C-alpha cells in the first residue's frame, strides 16, 4: 500500500470523494437558491411594470389635477412599502446564500449534522 506523508492513498481518496460529494451537494443547493431568488426578482419586475402602466393609464384618463396628485401619492406609498420589502428580502437572501457558501468550508461531517438539526427543528425526522 502506498503512502503520502504517512497517510495511505485509500484514506486520501476517500476523503477527496467525500469532499467532492459535499461540494456537489452544496453547489446544487446554491444553484436552487439562486434560481428562487432570480424568480422572485423577475416576478417583482413584472409587478412593478404592470403597476407603472396602470398608473400611466389612470393619469392619462383623469383630467382633475387633485385626482392625479392622489394617484401619485398612492403610488409613492406603494413604492416605499415595496422598497422596504425588497430590502428585507435582499438581506434574507444574502444571509441564506452566505450560510450555503460557508458549508463549502465546513468539515464533511458537519454538513450532515447541520441538515439533521434543521430537520428536527422543523419537525421532520
Quick take:
The protein contains 3 helices and 2 strands, in the order E-E-H-H-H. By secondary structure, it is mainly alpha-helical.
Which strand order spans the largest sheet, edge to edge or round the barrel?
1-2
- Specify the helix fraction band: over 70%
What share of the residues does DSSP label as strand, in percent? under 5%
Q: Averaging pLDDT over every residue, what do you get?
A: 84
- Give the class from helix and strand content and strand pairing: mainly alpha
Give the tally of β-strands: 2
Number of helices: 3
Name the helix and strand elements from N-terminus to C-terminus, one letter apiece: EEHHH
Which helices and strands appear, and what pairs or packs with what?
Blueprint: E1 3-4, E2 7-8, H1 9-61, H2 65-103, H3 108-121
Antiparallel strand pairs: 1-2
Helix pairs in contact: 1-2
Short descriptors:
125 residues, mainly alpha, two-stranded antiparallel ribbon, 3 helices, disordered C terminus
Provide a descriptive summary of the structure in words.
- With 125 residues, this protein is mainly alpha-helical.
- The chain has three helices and two strands, in the order E-E-H-H-H.
- It is rod-shaped and about 85 Å long.
- Mean pLDDT is 84; it is low at 119-125.
Amino acid at each position: 500500500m502506498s503512502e503520502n506523508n504517512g497517510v495511505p492513498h485509500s484514506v486520501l481518496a476517500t476523503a477527496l470523494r467525500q469532499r467532492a460529494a459535499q461540494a456537489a451537494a452544496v453547489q446544487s443547493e446554491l444553484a436552487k437558491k439562486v434560481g428562487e431568488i432570480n424568480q422572485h426578482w423577475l416576478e417583482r419586475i413584472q409587478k412593478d411594470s404592470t403597476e407603472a402602466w396602470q398608473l400611466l393609464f389612470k393619469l392619462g384618463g383623469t383630467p382633475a389635477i387633485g385626482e392625479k396628485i392622489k394617484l401619485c401619492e398612492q403610488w409613492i406609498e406603494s413604492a416605499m412599502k415595496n422598497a422596504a420589502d425588497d430590502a428585507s428580502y435582499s438581506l434574507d437572501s444574502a444571509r441564506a446564500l452566505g450560510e450555503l457558501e460557508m458549508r463549502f468550508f465546513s468539515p464533511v461531517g458537519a454538513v450532515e449534522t447541520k441538515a439533521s438539526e434543521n430537520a428536527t427543528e422543523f419537525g421532520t425526522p
